[in-house]
Design brief:
Distance between the termini: 47 Å
Largest sheet: 3 strands, antiparallel
Number of helices: 14
Structural class: mainly alpha
Number of strands: 3
Order of helices and strands: HHEHHHHEEHHHHHHHH
Shape: globular
Bound molecules: zinc ion
Length: 316
């Protein structure tokens, strides 16, 4: 009897051939119907994303200097350099270096194959010549997700013309985050509770990155405050010393910021996710609990790690 897609994906994630976070949060939770859509940044969110990104940079720089490693590429690059404008030539090199290093990598192929095995659709969207996003959804949601992507591209074209040099770089890369309707629609697809999306939107709309409090900063502050309350011996459920502290299940996805560290809506989604994964295999439940703790830790140190990510994006 052929192995079902679920069986092979569960085995591969438990044996470390698939990345736990990407597979659980972005593939299995969509396949199990806990959320309708997941977005995966490629190569950044692949397990060897940093290595792949460095390989893309290295190939791009070598070829820009006229030093491609093989004769045929060197010859073709010399022709393209004469044919294209300097900017178009650079874009061509970036895209080609991305294809040579990322699209052919084992991790890229393994996670695409896992999505296919779970009967999921993976729509690819180019953010920059060396950054793509996978929009992962179930088949029946494909038309709606395509419409969402089309709207996003429209917004990008429109809003990038309004970009000012003093704006944070994320506004250039993800200008659609400034459109409240798009953010709400996207948040609902991703499975984010309405109250948390509203809190995120408020931060993005008014946040200039300096004077106002961005969602990442707000979320990190809320965790610190909750931990202080817990240390002071707040009343409520949970073990002594932890009462009133942040609830790990509220941090049920990476890059998700609950409106408060114990948001009941977010906690309910986290518990549903945990039950669905543990129902598939008890060991997945344990793996997911570990991810919850890591998500919480990441949001706690958020603003710094997010700034690092922005620097990484700027270098591309
Ligand atoms: Zn909330």
């Amino acid at each position: 009897m052929p192995e079902s897609g679920y069986e092979s994906v569960v085995r591969d994630v438990l044996e470390g051939r698939l990345d736990a976070r990407l597979t659980l949060e972005c593939l299995l939770l969509v396949a199990l119907g806990v959320r309708r859509l997941a977005i995966v940044a490629v190569p950044a969110e692949l397990p060897d994303g940093e290595v792949l990104g460095a390989a893309v940079d290295y190939e791009f720089r070598s070829r820009l200097a006229g030093g491609a490693s093989d004769l045929r590429t060197r010859f073709n690059d010399a022709i393209e350099r004469r044919r294209l404008s300097p900017v178009a030539f650079k874009t061509h090199l970036l895209r080609s270096s991305f294809a040579n290093n990322v699209l052919t990598s084992d991790s890229y192929r393994a996670h695409r194959a896992a999505a296919r095995g779970l009967d999921l659709e993976t729509l690819e969207s180019e953010v920059r010549p060396t950054i793509r996003e996978w929009y992962v959804c179930r088949r029946e949601d494909e038309p709606a997700v395509k419409a969402l992507l089309a709207r996003r591209h429209e917004l990008q074209k429109e809003l990038r013309t309004k970009y000012r040099p003093e704006d944070p770089v994320t506004y250039y890369i993800y200008p659609e985050e400034r459109d409240p309707e798009h953010v709400s629609a996207l948040g609902a697809f991703l499975g984010y509770p309405g109250c948390c999306v509203a809190a995120y939107r408020r931060g993005r709309e008014t946040g200039s990155g300096e004077t106002q409090e961005m969602p990442e900063e707000r979320a990190a502050r809320q965790i610190r405050e909750a931990e202080e309350r817990a240390a002071e011996g707040a009343a409520g459920p949970g073990p002594p010393g932890r009462r009133g502290g942040p609830t790990p299940t509220a941090y049920w996805l990476k890059d998700f910021f609950p409106c408060r560290p114990d948001c009941p809506e977010a906690v309910a989604r986290g518990e549903a996710a945990l039950a669905a994964l543990a129902g598939l295999d008890a060991r997945l439940g344990l793996l997911y609990e570990d991810l919850l703790a890591r998500n919480l830790a990441r949001v706690r140190t958020g603003p710094e790690s997010i700034r690092e990510h922005e620097n990484w994006l700027t270098r591309r």
